[in-house]
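Lab notebook, bench 4. Still working through the backlog of constructs that have no structural model yet. Next entry is a single chain of 273 residues. Request: give me the structure tokens for it.
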Amino acid sequence: MIVVVSSPPVLITDPADERIADFRDLVAGDRKPGTERGTGPVIVEGVPAVQRLLASPYPVRCVFGIPGRVADLQLPDGIPAYEADRWVLSEVIGFRLTRGVLASADRLPPADLDELLAGPDPTAPRRLAVLEGLNDHENIGSIARSAMALGIDGLLLDPTCADPLYRRCVRVSMGHVLSLPIAVLADWPGDLAKVRAAGYETVALTPAADAVDLREIDARAHPRTAVLLGAEGPGLTPQAQAAVDVRARIPMRSGVDSLGVAAAAAITFATLR
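Model written out:
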């Protein structure tokens, strides 16, 4: 049961107020000065995404927005809530926010790889997305959104991928990335052997002419599938492609050699569902 905050959000008039420090200068980069990559609070923008944050396992630190927008969220009791006019809000975060509200949350450690591979039911059909070398935050966010929509149960990242909980990733995913378990394959591509040992058919996506047509892969015959996707341009490394069960391509019109990775991911997820 949701308990609505009885008192209104606290009004912030000073952009230097330390109570809203989580949101200061968000355009400075994917982390605060002096902090390591992949650290610091998770920042979420917009009412739908904040609502998904509230339903996720991530502990909410506070909420900050324009008058009326924060109150509309019907926050659970105990979450600090602040509001300010648009000019103060813009001065704090460093840009004009069109979505009207932000929230910050504590990070959670990456999921345990063995537990993620097993899933709640080791016998149930499972689909995973494995990302190698993706450094574009918006591509990761878009892939996460498609993953939630099209039946992917988790994300596995190689150590070089960008932070999937960075603000732009969360924004582009519409907050859906917060509902996906995420694990890191620290030994890359060696840890793909663990994925295969857990019963997953590993499928590397590539535009290479010698790859099989994606439509030839029978998802019903392989109830556990892990799809590998590489960065736009270089794609998957030869080492990653050599470590999988099958290399597959999306059939395309002659003269078009590839798709953007986010579009390719959505097509692949839907095809192998």
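Notes after review: Residues 113-271 form a domain with the Alpha/beta knot fold (CATH 3.40.1280.10). Residues 3 and 204 are 47 Å apart (CA to CA). Flag for follow-up if needed.
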